[in-house]
């Protein structure tokens, strides 16, 4: 008999035989439960039933905060019971999640799987294999009125589980316990697991909350929408070997924003704010992937407010400037998003925002020799092509061509003429790059889709490195900057 079936019987017989006078007694009793010496599966089942029933029974009294829930989870994770029987304990907890209905018990189960999975991705892999993704969607949709803490943790578990692996096609497209053969139903109308209403529900949560992305409920909702978008992109543009080519899924996130974007502007504002603040590379990539689709889908070209797009330009200029030459793949992704941002949105209407700054930055990224090459590294062919595509945007290209046409005047001193000549040569070179690059690449969406980074990896930053070196120099009583820092300072002054 599975743990979840035993729980129903055990809960009826529990009758709160404990008499606890204070919180310390609760934690002492919990220590005793998880310290049980269990060598047989039946004894492990008894210990897990005791753990879940005892903690759920006293949840309202002694587990009222997120810290308390986490502490409770780590009592089991750090126990000898778990360390000796990890796979079996995980398996039993996963199956409890699939069948349990009590909100308090579900909260403790979800917390355990979340904290365990963050330490060991094998937990999330097991969850996918056992069909937990549809169960999480079901709980999120059916338990909207349960306590916020449980709902938020369900969102976090769905996000963490989905970010480290490709979901099965049936998880995204087919509902129910029975998964039909996808080849036989490819031309039939499938029962959709992720309904349009579910995406609308998540977007409405964001719209109904404050504009502060630090809201503890706000962030998990946004991340779930971002990870669902990535899973749709992977299914469409980087299908796995087991995915039939006949299966074409509709990206429900982009669809909702295409049809009802004007009702969900807060989501757009907040993903730009998150990109501005986020230092984790994997989350930056999730945001960039959605931005790329929105800027290359005609119905969402103008989803964002113009002022938000201007903020995004500032963020992208800063981030491109701040990336060291080792972050080539991330730089390429930023450039792939920058082109449709400049070409397709309201930014292509005058007055053109930060045109000179953009041209200077793009010129620097294709410069060779000196501080520029030290900062950005040797210019690779992909960077040249992507920069050329950006410069080929009509309103940037007009600026370069306009300066070429108006260059006949001979006024000014010799040094001024020399400086103008060098500036013209740089812009002429940039225009040549743009003409050679072409305006589109069928590979871009695939390249954007396939960019990945492990969770927790921080984006390298010349700014953070410079700040740390300055702090070290201050502690050592010395002054001065490294070559990279000097280059960064020089380029920052030129951009400004």
Give the count of helical stretches.
Answer: 28
- The parts where pLDDT drops under 50 for at least 5 residues are 4-16, 174-192, 430-440, 466-491
Strand content: under 5%
Task: Give the terminus-to-terminus CA distance.
Answer: 69 Å
How does the overall form come out from the CA principal axes?
elongated
- Kindly state the number of beta strands: 0
Structural class: mainly alpha
Main sheet summary: none
Radius of gyration from the alpha-carbon trace, in angstroms? 28 Å
Order of helices and strands: HHHHHHHHHHHHHHHHHHHHHHHHHHHH
Question: What percent of the residues sit in helical stretches (DSSP H or I)?
Answer: 55-70%
Would you tell me the overall average pLDDT? 79
Per-chain topology:
Blueprint lengths: L2 H12 L8 H12 L6 H17 L1 H4 L3 H12 L2 H5 L1 H14 L3 H17 L2 H8 L2 H11 L5 H16 L5 H5 L8 H4 L10 H13 L9 H20 L14 H9 L4 H13 L3 H16 L9 H17 L5 H17 L10 H11 L4 H7 L4 H11 L2 H12 L8 H24 L6 H7 L11 H15 L6 H13 L1
Helix pairs in contact: 1-3, 3-7, 3-8, 5-8, 7-8, 8-11, 10-11, 11-15, 14-15, 15-18, 15-26, 17-18, 17-19, 18-20, 19-20, 20-23, 21-23, 22-28, 23-25, 24-25
Would you summarize the structure shown here?
With 496 residues, this protein is mainly α. Helix content is 69%, strand content 0%.
Provide an overview of this structure:
The structure is a single chain. Helix content is 69%, strand content 0%. The chain is mainly alpha-helical. Helix 1 packs across helix 3 and helix 15 (218-237) crosses helix 26. Residues 4-16, 174-192, 430-440 and 466-491 have low confidence and may be disordered. It is elongated.
């Amino acid at each position: 008999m599975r743990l979840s079936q035993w729980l129903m019987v055990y809960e009826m017989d529990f009758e709160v035989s404990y008499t606890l006078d204070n919180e310390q007694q609760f934690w002492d009793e919990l220590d005793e439960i998880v310290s049980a010496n269990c060598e047989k599966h039946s004894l492990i089942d008894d210990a897990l039933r005791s753990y879940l029933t005892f903690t759920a029974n006293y949840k309202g009294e002694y587990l009222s905060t997120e810290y308390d829930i986490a502490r409770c989870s780590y009592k089991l994770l750090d126990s000898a019971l778990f360390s000796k029987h990890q796979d079996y304990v995980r398996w039993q907890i996963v199956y409890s999640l699939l069948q349990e209905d009590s909100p308090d018990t579900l909260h403790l189960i979800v917390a355990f799987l979340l904290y365990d999975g963050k330490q060991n991705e094998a937990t999330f892999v097991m969850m996918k294999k056992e069909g937990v993704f549809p169960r999480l969607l079901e709980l999120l949709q059916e338990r909207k009125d349960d306590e916020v803490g449980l709902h938020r943790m369900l969102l976090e578990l769905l996000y963490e589980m989905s970010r480290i692996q490709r979901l099965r096609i049936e998880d995204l497209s087919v509902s129910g316990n029975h998964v039909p053969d996808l080849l036989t139903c490819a031309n039939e109308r499938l029962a959709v697991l992720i309904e349009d209403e579910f995406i609308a529900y998540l977007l409405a949560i964001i719209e109904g909350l404050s504009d502060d992305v630090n809201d503890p409920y706000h962030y998990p909702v946004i991340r779930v929408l971002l990870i669902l978008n990535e899973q749709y992109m992977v299914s469409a543009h980087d299908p796995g070997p087991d995915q039939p080519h006949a299966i074409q899924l509709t990206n429900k996130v982009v669809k909702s924003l295409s049809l009802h974007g004007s009702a969900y502007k807060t989501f757009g504002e907040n993903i730009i704010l998150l990109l501005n603040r986020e230092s984790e590379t994997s989350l930056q990539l999730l945001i960039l992937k959605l931005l790329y689709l929105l800027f290359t889908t005609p119905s969402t070209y103008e989803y964002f407010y113009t002022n938000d797009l201007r903020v995004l330009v500032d963020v992208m200029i800063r981030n491109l400037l701040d990336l060291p030459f080792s972050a080539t793949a991330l730089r390429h992704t930023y450039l792939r998003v920058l082109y449709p941002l400049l070409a397709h949105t309201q930014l292509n209407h005058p007055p053109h925002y930060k045109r000179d700054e953009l041209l200077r930055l793009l010129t620097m990224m294709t410069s060779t020799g000196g501080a520029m090459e030290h900062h950005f590294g040797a210019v690779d062919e992909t960077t040249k092509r992507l920069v050329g595509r950006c410069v080929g945007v009509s309103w940037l290209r007009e600026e370069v061509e306009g300066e070429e046409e108006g260059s006949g005047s001979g006024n000014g001193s010799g040094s001024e003429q020399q400086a103008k000549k060098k500036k013209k040569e740089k812009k002429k070179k940039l225009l040549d790059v743009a003409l050679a690059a072409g305006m589109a690449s069928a590979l871009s969406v695939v390249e954007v889709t396939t960019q990945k980074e492990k969770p927790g990896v921080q984006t390298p930053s010349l700014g953070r490195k410079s700040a740390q070196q300055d702090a070290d120099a201050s502690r050592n009583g010395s002054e001065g900057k490294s070559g990279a820092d000097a280059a960064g300072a020089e380029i920052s002054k030129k951009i400004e």
